[in-house]
Write a structure and sequence with these properties.
Blueprint lengths: L1 E4 L8 H14 L7 E5 L4 H10 L6 E5 L13 E3 L5
Parallel strand pairs: 1-2, 1-4, 2-3
Length: 85
């Protein structure tokens, strides 16, 4: 399970993460993975639409912002921070 914790905005690199997921999914034979993305809803609808249009729903799940991430952190095998700045 891959975790993303941050705002759903371009400068935080979420579109870059979606591109990476799409590439990995396209390779085939990749070890099973899933991205659980937790964030504020700035571009939530736009990213949900992009996920749906590119059929990435089995690899990415969007979750709304949570105040306390301590309960979810131990579930992640990896946390990604694709922030552009």
């Amino acid at each position: 399970l891959v975790g993303y914790l941050g705002r759903f905005v371009p400068e935080k690199g979420f579109p870059l993460l979606l591109e990476a997921v799409e590439r990995l999914a396209g390779f085939g034979g990749t070890r099973p993975f899933h991205v659980a993305a937790f964030g504020s809803h700035d571009y939530f609808r736009e990213y949900r639409k992009r996920i749906d249009e590119r059929d990435l729903g089995r690899w990415v799940t969007l979750h709304r912002f949570v105040k306390d991430v301590r309960p979810v952190l131990p579930q992640f095998g990896l946390v990604v921070v694709p922030s552009l700045w």
